[in-house]
Amino acid sequence: MATVIETKDLCKTYVVDKRQNNVLKNINLKVDEGEMVAIMGPSGSGKSTLLYSISGMDQATSGKVLFDGEDLAKMSSTQLAETRLDKMGFIFQQMFMMKNLTILDNILLPAFESKKGGSREDKIQKGEELMRKLGIIEVADNDINEVSGGQLQRACICRSMINSPKILFADEPTGALNRTSSNEVMDELVKLNEEGTTIMMVTHDAKVASRCTRVLFIVDGNIKGEYQNDTSMPDKDRERKLNNWLMDLGW
Amino acid sequence: MFGRILKKDLKRNKTMNIILFLFVIIASVFFASGIYNFVSVMNGTDYMFEKAGIGDYQLIALGENAIGSFEGKIKAVPEVESYSFDTVIYMSKGDVFKESGKQINIENVGMLLSPERAGMTFFDKDDNAITSVAPGEVYVSSSAFRENNLSVGDKLTFELGDVKVTLTVAGSLKDAFLGSSFFGNPRFLVNDASLQKFLDDEFAFTYYGGELFYIKTDDTAAVGSALSDLENVAYSKPVSMIKMAYVMNLIVAFIVVILSICLMIVSFLVLRFTINFSIGEDFREIGVMKAIGIKDKKIRTIYFTKYAVIAIIGSAIGFFLSIPFGKLLLDSMTQDMILGSSWGYAWNILGSVCVTLMVILFAYLSTSKIRCLTPIDAVRSGQTGERFKKKGGIRIAKNIMRPSWYLAINDIFSSPKRFVTIIVTFSLCTLLVLMIVNTANTMNSDKLVYLFGPPSDVYITDNKKATSFMHADGEAELDEYLDELADEFTKEGMPCTARIRMIYTYQVEYEGNTYSYSFEQDWRSNVSEFKMAEGVAPSNEREVAITKQFTELTGAKIGDTIRIDYGDKKEELLITGCFQSMNQLGKVILLHEDAPTDFSHLTSPSQFMIDFTDNPDQKTIDERVKKIKDLTGNDEVFNATEFCVDCVKVYDIMDAVAKLLLLITLIVVILITILMERSFIADEKSEIAIAKAVGFKDSTVIKWHVHRFFIVAFVAMLLAVGLSMPMTDLCISPIFGMMGASDIDYNYDIFRSFVMYPGAILIVTVVTAFLTALYTRKIRSRDTASIE
User: Fold this and answer.
1) What are phi and psi of A51, to 5 degrees?
2) Is the residue at B687 inside a domain?
3) Does B225 reach chain A within 8 Å, measured CB to CB?
4) Residues with pLDDT less than 50, chain A
5) Helices then strands, each counted (H, E), chain A
6) Three-state SS across B646-658?
7) Same domain assignment for residues B309 and B365
8) Of residues A92, A97, A143, nearest to B390 (C-beta)
């Protein structure tokens, strides 16, 4: 499997009131194509910072982030924007969308901004297909305040998938959802992963993490442990086993 | 605790608070200066006349031994309450020179006088009364000061008879009585000792001495009637005539009023927008406070305090800035007048207080909305941007626009109110500029020429020559001179005829009422060439045409008969037509060329008019104008357009006003664009961040924001251009109407009015929006993590 993301001695430091806060300390990791990696850890451990740094949304203080072998730090802001547009997808805990656009228009917007992906008609068709696949086609023409949180998060997934990205970054995608919606969203993400999309997500939820292929546990800016889920096991067993591992690490 | 909340809010919402603060300052500057200017202009000439003390009726005495021979007659009129008078020495062109030897241009007659022997008060350029003039110095009427390019320190030589005096120019003066450029009577205010030198000279005293009376009365008609039989009177009219003479200056002043009203509307719109916008930003905070049980009244008190503090400080700063700003507008537009109010800057204070109250009122109205909302409604209406209304109906899937254009248009349709504010503001300012540009273009064209009589190819101003025929045998001499003039030009390869238009004053009677009125008669041309608005031109000496102004004064109309006293006989004349004239501000009756007029009743001759008989094109006429200037040694030779500019006189000021208005409009546009765009960026921070997170480039986000301003500014320009023609007609025609012209054929310069000026405003808007939108580069995709 080819490596999609690789970090080398990745460090991130914030300076607040002249005090240095080393959020990430020499992180070295690799994410291969087709993987579904969960990043877990206590609050303030640097999970989201790691996600934003490796996705190019934030700049590392030192070290390297290689995306498809290319150093993100050497990319211009325009190249980074193009990479995010065509090769990466993002899902956030808050379902951020353009408030003046309908659900479908929000999903199509990155597609129309991108030069790839065929004609306008193809893009519209793809947007509708994604919505159909995620079960929200009936809200295509609704405003963003006219749908439920679960529907909105699924719309965010559609938007992140519209340009067929190589990797999908998700920052607590189920954090703002109830259990049912959370399960539905995770089902969709797992399905996308099974179809070949690499996914990297931050989560607090062991149940969510148990559905990923690999779990990274981060504490104080260091990867304290790495856990490979046995996807052949039933869900409950897999979750229990992961919980045990997490407890061993002090979770 | 509320103090701490307020302090935190001022710190946390710094951008929006600063924007609101700046808008309050702008609104206060516009509103306070607007009110002051409005009142000053509306007080207009009354304030100036009262300050100068020119009374209710004015009379100018001239001619042999004029000094001292009128006072007794005026004193004897029972209706005269009081009077004062100037003792003057009349000067013509050729009597006053610059150090270089160049003559000072005196269109009609100039006057030399001293403050000690003046019956009225004169003012310097800063509106201070001139109570004395230092020996060896002279103040010159502001219009003459300007037209002759004089500067303080220049030397002027006055020469009359055997007296020759050289004086240093100390400054310009504002003359309430003859200061209007319409009169062409500059006055030279000198030290009394300098004046005495001329008064001591017998020739100057006898032939050039005169007096100007300022009479206070409640019955100007009776005074006018009692003084109507006096001889050697050049002017005898009530003060209303002087008011009319300032109409040209007042056109400019009224533009200030319209501008002030526009600026007030602009300030009202932007304030309302900003406060609604700003409180919208605070909704989430308000919701949280409601949720924890703080009463509505207390929440509103917090916001009142905040807005009151911003309003009071902003308005106070605005008040101080409004004084120079208002002065800038008035000073540049009314150089010959004293405009003001006895309340002084109290009006500015009132304007600033109004702005403060407006802010608090808007804040009250905006916060009152939250009383009806539950805490969660308030939270949900806050920064998440969620609202409870349907958005704009444009779908990206159903059109072929690029995302930046699509987002821009969709935003406009989704929040039309905020963009309508910009459109209305921009179009109002642009419309005002275009109206003035259209007026200036009209004044700088030959479109008005027919309002001064049938047009000629060339006009020659030679007042000294023209007035030299104003005596009993003048008619024959005038004929001879016109023949000579035509022959001279014909010999030079410019075949032509020459003519002149005369203005007489006769008594006219209609339905038992008698009026002293002006009559117009063309010397050597056919009255049928006059353009009639109604009826037909007089076809014989027993017919006349009147103007609307005469009908308004007397009620006479076409078909009626009026009676004219020619001096030696009285004639009944039939009114056959109604025409427009800007001669005598329309207060004139048109006589047939055969009417039995005589030069003893001549008030003023017009320019000499040359009509070429070989129908030359405009280029040839312009070449001939130059040639005639060389032949006659007279610089005041004009083609039809230049003649109109010379007659209307305010073209230069109007053109300067148009440029100043464009500058003010650009400043308003820049300020509003910067502040609105910064507000939008603050409001849309989360959307910008998310757009970047999904891969939008900085340039796409900037384009999205710039396109919005381009679209609204473009719509505003279209509206302004579309409305400029009917609005020019609606707003400017009444002003021309005051000058005697009720039906104006405007000259629209398509390039200047519809391309250049709106284009400049559009470009400035787009550039400003672009530069302000560069700030969006500071919003990063990672900011999605810190969005509340």
Assistant:
1) -60, -45
2) yes
3) no
4) none
5) 8, 10
6) HHHCCHHHHHHHH
7) yes
8) A143
Q: B393 and chain A: CB distance < 8 Å anywhere?
A: no
A170-199 pLDDT, tens per residue? 988 887 777 887 888 888 888 889 888 999
Domains of chain A, first to last:
3-248 (3.40.50.300)
Do B467 and B432 have their domain in common? no
The verdict on B415 and B478 lying in the same domain is no
**Is the pTM above the cut of 0.80?**
no
Mutate to test the interface with B, among A72, A87, A145, A172 (most CBs of B within 10 A): A145
Phi, psi of B399 (to 5 degrees): -145, 175
| Tokens, residue A97 | 């969308």
Do B581 and B520 contact (CB within 8 A), yes or no? yes
Angstrom distance (rounded) from CA B43 to CA B38: 9
Residue B579: exposed, middle, or buried by beta-carbon count in 10 A (0-12, 13-18, 19+)?
buried
Kindly tell me the number of DSSP H helices and DSSP E strands found in chain B: 24, 21
> Cβ B780–A113 below 8 Å, yes or no?
no
* Neighbour count for residue B379 (Cβ, 10 Å): 20
Quick one: B251 and B380 in the same domain? yes
CB contact under 8 A, A82 and B697: yes
Whether residues B329 and B423 share a domain: the answer is no
CB B317 within 8 A of CB B28: yes
In a domain, B334, yes or no: yes
CA dihedral of residues A180, A184, A190, A193 (deg, nearest 10): -150
CA B456 – CA B463 distance, rounded (Å): 18
Task: Copy the structure tokens of residue B529.
Answer: 């060439």
Q: Which domain holds residue B98?
A: 59-73+81-217
Polymer length in residues for chain A: 251
Do B414 and B392 meet the contact criterion of CB atoms below 8 Å apart? yes
Each residue's pLDDT tens digit, B703-740: 999 999 999 999 999 999 999 999 998 888 887 877 77
Is B340 part of any domain? yes
Three-state SS at A16: strand
- Here the ipTM equals 0.79
Q: Are B377 and B287 in contact (CB under 8 A)?
A: yes
- Total structural domains in chain B? 4
Rounded to the nearest 5 degrees, what angle is found at the Cα of B111, between the Cα atoms of B135 and B198?
55
The whole-angstrom separation of Cα B112 and Cα B690 is 78
Q: Tokens in use for B436?
A: 């003035």
pLDDT band per the 50, 70, 90 thresholds, residue B242: confident
Cβ–Cβ < 8 Å for B520, B589: yes
Smallest CA-to-CA distance from B120 within B43, B45, B58, B186 is with B58
Structure-token match 């992180």, residue found = A27
User: Among all residues of chain A, which has the CA nearest to that of B779?
Assistant: A57
Integer Cα distance of B157 and B96 in angstroms: 6
Size of interface A-B (CB pairs under 8 A): 111
Measure the CA–CA gap between A104 and B396, rounded to whole angstroms: 9
Nearest to B234 by CA among B270, B275, B278, B184: B184
Nearest to A14 by CA among B687, B697, B383, B785: B785
Residues B254 and B207 in one domain: no
Strands (E), B670-719: none
Do both B85 and B199 map to the same domain? yes
B275-314: per-residue pLDDT in tens? 777 677 677 677 777 767 777 777 777 777 888 888 899 9
Of B169, B186, B217, the residue that ends a domain is B217
Judge: A94–B787 Cβ closer than 8 Å, yes or no.
yes
| Integer Cα distance of B376 and B49 in angstroms | 65
For A162, the closest chain B residue by CA position comes to: B694
Alpha carbon B220 to chain centroid, angstroms: 29
